[in-house]
Amino acid sequence: MYHKMTPARLIRLAWIPLCVLLLVACHNDMYDQQRFEVFEPSTFFPDGNSSRPLPAGTVQYGDVRTDTLYYTGRVNGAYSTEFPYPVTRAMIERGRQKYEAFCIPCHGITGNGNGMVAQRGAIQVPNLHEQRLRDAQAGYIFDIISNGIGRMYGYGDRVQIPDRWAIVAYIRVLQTSYNANINDVPPEQRGNIQP
Ligand code: HEC
Fold first, then answer.
1. Which residue has the least CA distance to atom 6 on ligand 1?
2. Residue 172 belongs to what domain range?
3. How do residues 119-167 score in pLDDT, each as one tens digit?
4. Is any atom of ligand 1 closer than 6 Å to the C-beta of 103?
């Protein structure tokens, strides 16, 4: 059984494509309105720019870096011995992950400077357990990770700030355990340690 295509039915069906057409044929006026592109010159201001210079001290929204300890590892220009917030176990575990991803190739799994790159003789890598680096402030190590030193390039563009602090915490763990003796191990755990 076929429906008969009466003229009335054809007109009713014609509404469908018409509605679709109306829906997609919106005007682009909002999009195509008159405006200046970024840095486009104009004659409106005497200096030839289409926009005004930013007032001194303007920063990107959400990027006011007043917390110098958190962002730079320094307080009043000096490296901080403190972390910007308390160290937690989760932070240390995160630090381990990141240390193993980014630092191991040169500094080695324990931090003694015998990573694969060093073993292949490409560069001399310092031992993180030497006294000078055990005494180094947390903020100093944070700064080395952020900006690098000598032949070590910085990781500021690859490792997020909280992860850099986490790595510092993990280096503290490595340094502590590297120099620990049996008395540092809780008595109930001592049986788990191979002599
Ligand atoms: C490509 C190899 C390489 C990698 C990867 C690397 N480092 Fe280094 N690191 C070095 C070298 C080489 C030095 C010595 C730089 C110098 O004094 O010229 C160094 C020095 C250091 C120092 C000691 C600075 C001092 O005062 O002597 C610290 C701390 C350090 N690195 C931490 C890290 C941490 C943390 C990571 C991972 C985020 C890392 N490094 C990744 C090669 C590397």
1. 103
2. 87-181
3. 998 789 999 999 999 999 999 999 999 999 999 999 999 999 999 999 9
4. yes
